[in-house]
Design goal:
The chain has two domains: 84 residues; 127 residues, Immunoglobulin-like, CATH 2.60.40. Helices cover 38% and strands 25% of the residues. It has two helices and twelve strands, in the order H-H-E-E-E-E-E-E-E-E-E-E-E-E. Strands 1, 2, 6, 8, 11 and 12 form a six-stranded mixed sheet that branches. Strand 1 and strand 2 form a beta hairpin. The chain is elongated, with a radius of gyration of 49 Å. The N terminus is likely disordered.
Length: 220
Amino acid sequence: MKYTRITALAAIGVAATLSLTACGNDDSGKDSSSKGSSPSSSSSSDGGSKPDGGSKPAAGNAKAGSGKDAEAHSGTPNGATKSDGKVKFCKTSDLAIDARDAATDKNSGRIDITMINQGSTTCSATGFAGVDIKDADNTSSPIGRGHAQPRVTTLKPGDAAVFDLAYSIDNSGHSLTNPTDIQVTPPNETHTVSLKWPAGAGKIKGAYTDVEVYPTHTTK
């Protein structure tokens, strides 16, 4: 009987030992799984850093936006220059305009057209005026430009600019033209004034196409 009891107790002891060993193996498996999850977690953390890397294009977009802001800012001084610093062209309504005979001899005809700035601000009359000559038969002929370079013509209030019409005088008494009016449009303007052809001015030799208009210049 004692032998049988001892054998039974020994069997129980072996079973308990095996049970403890199995439990130890299960725990070590869990630990291994837990330890193995760390690299996975680290990898996930690295992958999570990609949005930070993705934020770099957003910074680039910010730079592009700031470039536009810089461009807009750089445009501001230009806008200020146009409205504040640059002299505007003289308006026809601010100019007192007249024409006179300025021929220096009997062969070279010249009509001087003077424009006085009666406005309250400085303006520019630089360039060629538009000129048409009206004939007694009520036809108008545009006058071509002479070969000359425009000069800067800035007019303070009260200052005058002059341009002239040049042509050859017909002394034969058989001129085919009979001018009555000079229609003048100041440089860079659209409004026209009509002036009487100066009394006593020489007759035009040839046709109106032989008359030339020259650019403005100051009288100072």
